[in-house]
Design goal:
The chain is of the alpha/beta class. The protein has helices at residues 47-51, 68-71, 75-89, 91-111, 133-136, 149-156, 176-184; strands at 5-7, 23-28, 115-119, 141-146, 164-169, 189-193, 200-201, 204-208, 223-227.
């Protein structure tokens, strides 16, 4: 079986401040939404986020349409396809591999006195808390972005594993009232911008989310500004702001 996780050092954003913050991190990348044809791994996705998805940015860039036949020309996307297929077709093997790789992460990180960190939804939005991943791997700090308001509210209410951190990822469906309510509820909100980042938004301070991806270290009550890149720069749905 191929490796499930990608080392964060291979990603331009997630490798920032790894050594400075003494973090050893991995990311799980799936082929997003329902592109792989086995079922959606992004249940709360919108047209805007699917069109602007980071799945085809960085090392995953492709020219042409976001169709399965075109994506599978790339070895990166074939690997993401295979992970989705394994998740849907053989959960036992998938989670055995997941836990094995997380155990290896812990051993590697703790030898250097680094913090073992995992982002499970690199290009997906799965409710991993349903599968007991965090409880089986208590020494790992997990974090994700989610477009599920329910999941974000449950996390803020303390109804998620204590070693899991969630940031709400706004889409074109979220208006100012929605976002302000999330922030007042103790949920940080990530928003992609096409221009310069504002200093405040929706009545709350804005932090530069491009400086690092370690959202579990953010103060509460923050808008996390992210830079629109790749296809997201051409967004007209309202998913990208500014």
């Amino acid at each position: 079986m191929r490796k499930l996780f990608t080392d964060a050092r291979s990603n331009a954003k997630t490798r920032k401040r790894l050594t400075a913050e003494r973090i050893r991190a991995v990311i799980l990348h799936f082929m997003p939404a329902a592109l792989a044809g086995f079922g959606s791994v992004c249940a709360w996705s919108t047209a805007g986020c699917r069109a602007a998805c980071l799945n085809v940015s960085g090392r995953g860039q492709v020219s042409g349409p976001l169709a399965l036949s075109n994506l599978l020309r790339s070895p990166i996307h074939r690997a993401r396809f295979d992970r989705v297929r394994l998740f849907f077709e053989n959960r036992v093997e998938f989670f055995e591999g997941l836990d094995r790789e997380l155990a290896a992460l812990v051993r590697s990180a703790e030898r250097s006195e680094f913090l073992p960190v995992a982002r499970l939804n690199g290009t997906s939005d799965i409710s991993w808390e349903r599968f007991g991943v965090m409880e089986r791997n208590p020494r790992v700090t997990f974090y994700d972005y989610t477009k599920s308001r329910r999941r974000a509210v449950e996390w803020a209410g303390g109804r998620m594993p204590t070693n899991y951190h969630l940031t709400y990822s706004a889409t074109e469906r979220d208006n100012a009232v929605d976002i302000n309510a999330m922030l007042r509820g103790g949920i940080n909100v990530a928003i992609p911008y096409r221009g310069a980042f504002p200093k405040t938004a929706f009545g709350f301070p804005v932090i530069d989310g491009t400086e690092s991806d370690w959202r579990f270290r953010d103060s509460v009550g923050r808008v996390v500004a992210l830079k629109a890149s790749g296809r997201a720069r051409r967004d007209s749905s309202g998913f990208v702001r500014g």
